[in-house]
Write the structure tokens for this entry.
Amino acid sequence: MDKLIITGGTQLSGELRISGAKNAALPILAATLLCEEPVTVGNIPHLHDITTTMQLLGQMGVQLTIDEKMNIEVHSSTITKFEAPYELVKTMRASILVLGPLLARFGEANVSLPGGCAIGSRPVDIHIDALIKMGADIQVEAGYIHAKVDRLKGCKLILDKVTVTGTENLLMAATLAEGTTIIENAAKEPEVSDLAHFLNAMGAKITGIDTAILTIEGVEKLDNKNIHYNILPDRIETGTYLIAAAITRGSIKLKDVRPGTLDAVLDKLKEAGAEITIGENWIKLDMHGKKPKAVNIRTAPYPAFPTDMQAQFTALNIVAEGVGTITETVFENRFMHVQEMQRMGANIQLESNTAICTGSEKITAAPVMATDLRASASLVIAGLAAEGDTLVDRIYHIDRGYDHIEEKLSQLGATIRRIPR
Ligand code: UD1
């Protein structure tokens, strides 16, 4: 397995281009299953999860062509199998996103249950219950969801919890349902809105985008021609590099970003002492060489502070001035990075779903192990501030969600290299 070695102590500076959002690219590629016509998706990030999604669609018989600029052209009418096998679903939970589109367009889907994962149990009961309410016959047997329907029927769905992929699955399913579907308590994450805009570009009729109530008027087919859709920029990648710069007391400019999707994160960076300047599609952060101040964070669905950014802020807090608390309310069991940071000398106390971080004068490099995607990124960030060489193992998690992380950090002046297995 590849590893990363980071030599701490360099202030990051310079400019960087941010990639397309992983969490928008995955549902949008799944949504291409709904279209009768070829579709091209651009600004696709170079990630392992994208390769897995292409494998998933490819093994169903969908034709995919990728060019050197990471534009993917998808023809889904060649599909022969309506299945997402365990081998692929176990490596990428987001494979569940093919359930809605397969069922809506082809009336059949066999999708492996995602099962547990490193950050809690993450069930899919809300996806299944809502599809049953829309008329699907669903049996869960031998670890698979077997779903069948003649045509889904529109209805009112009130989701028990705000779920991102749940909202996305139902949004996709409802585009081809008979009649109108209303999704209440829908997730408002920018990636959900990006998917909704893509569906509308293919011919869907969705209103209420960016709000908690989505209304979908079902249509017979999605068959708009010549669609080329560019994925929105990755707000989590953006936030991760901003924190990397803040922890090293540096100054960076990130380009091709959407600043409006990062309000909660930018507020916390300002509280930590960063000077933030924003333009239409860029963000500048400058610490003026100062040590960051510790901040208190509470995760919650968008537009509140994202759970996918809490581990990175934990890294910031452990070398900041003062005491900062990180409270996780979206997932259980999302503090696996804490133990690893403690091995680097961090002063963190865990009390139920809160990590109390007291900033230390210095943390020291240690071999650490990545356990999930964002936890891995937080360990790399901690390595940038540590004294010595931090070795981060099991970085396949990082490659699932960060496009060329070592090249991008090197571009900002970090001393980081990959050791291939
Ligand atoms: C998505 C993101 C992930 C992010 C998360 C929260 C993708 C591919 N992944 O994950 O990066 O961390 O949103 O912003 O977009 N829940 C249920 N039943 C369900 C569905 C969810 O109880 O049927 C619970 C989950 O256990 C969790 C909460 O709802 O506690 C939110 O999860 P959800 O928004 O569904 O996360 P994902 O869509 O899996």
User: Anything to note?
Assistant: The longest helix spans residues 190-202.
